[in-house]
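FERM domain-containing protein 5
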Amino acid sequence: MLSRLMSSSIRSLDRECNCTVRLLDDSEYTCTIQRDAKGQYLFDLICHHLNLLEKDYFGIRYVDPDKQRHWLEFTKSIAKQMKSQPPFTMCLRVKFYPPDPAALKEEITRYLVFLQVKRDLYHGRLLCKTSDAALLAAYILQAEIGDYDPGKHPEGYSSKFQFFPKHSEKLERRIAEIHKTELIGQTPETSELNFLQKAQMLETYGVDPHPCKDVSGNPAFLAFTPFGFTVLQGNRRVHLLKWEEVTKLKFEAKTFHIYANQKEDKKIILTYFAPTPEACKHLWKCGVENQAFYKLEKSSQVRTVSSSNLFFKGSRFRYSGKVAKEVMEQSAKIKRDPPEIHRAGMVPSRSCPSITHGPRLTSVPRTRRRAVHISIMEGLESLRDSAHSTPVRSVSHGDSFMPSRSQTVDGSEASTSAVISDENYSPSDSVLPTPVAEHGMEMPLARHLNGAPCSIDEEESEAGTSKEGQATEFGHSRREQRMVKSRPATSSEVEELNKFILSVLRLFLVTIGLLFALLLLLIMLTESDLDIAFLRDIRKTPEFQQFHFEYFCPLRRWFACKLRWMGGFLVSEAK
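Predicted structure tokens:
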């Protein structure tokens, strides 16, 4: 009896698993879910924990063991999607950026979107000029510490905040000046709204970059925004296709195609190459979801799309959520007292560190500044050495930070400190969506000096399996390329080979099935009474005569006998 109880309890434990979700304020929500629980169940638990009703803008993101990002599909089992053993670690992120943050109904929703855009600013996904950067940072400062107080905020206090991947002392002084003189009296709610309204006017608002290469082999980043499909190269936006112009998104292996119709019936096809087939599939699914969310009028208009024109090949996917118009209509019906918001305030953050304590060390600790600079230089060198027609520095944003080639060779501390031009600030000079720190002896020191966990680990920490970086750099050196070629086949390559074999087998089976169906149709036509010339010629051949008398007629008599027996049996049963 006791053994049966123990075995049943063990089986119940096996059916459960722990799950940790990192929220936008870097707090963690931990729960226990059933192994067969679907993504929607976990998402509803998080939204209930946050008291969030306008939840359709958000999603849960995770990273698989191969360091590939995914959005958790709410209609499928969590355990089957994770490709790893529990406990599972995921992140709550904004999946669909609201086109107009001021139109959001509730303050709690705006606050969460504010945290996401602040994160984008810090990780270099939000491009801006120096004047815009100073204003955005001042809004963050006002929202976090309130009005300037000489007794609480000593000289250089703005430098103890990390708003961007890198910034100069002149920019820090400008941030403090705006905070002291222009934002007095603004509440955190007002500062956050002003921040979002300013960010929403920038070209890269809502950008979640996917690293790719164009047909010439030049690095590029593809992104989907509330306003359309965007291509970024260097600090420049080279393409913007509005959602109503995009007609089809298609991928095959590593190749991604965008079909669009522009003015005067001008049809264009853009082709890009992702680093892996899994990355290309993730890019395609993100594009399908964003197009459905922002373009369609009703969720009933959503259709299942295929990545290929052939019915027996490719992936099929269907967006399962609401569209933007429905979300706005549903938000307008919300009638409740505004929920209480617990702002992070002075609490240090892993991804966007708040005010730090201790001696003034400039905005970024020296060791971390050097690590960020190394990844910046690798990206810039690869882009500058390529036959790239797009300039590295932004045409519309003036002169950006462009370190000399000698700085990458010199290992001294003076050469590793990135100095920003006073005329312009662009946090994406690194050509990388997120700077990647070196994993060595410098990392613990950087964490200690900053007084908070290193913010550079923010994106790769979603994996939940390790703290290794998820760098998507295309500017590898020749030596690194030779090392990659000499490595044994990875799980993604094996999976790609298996997909190819399954595709060939599927094609073979479909061909055999079609031939069999055509043969049956031909036999039925020749044995029928149709008087057609080519059928008469077939009936006169000796082969058909032999088939008719030796095979077809006996088989027909056998079927007729069986049918009569079945008919007689049913009649007798009825009586």
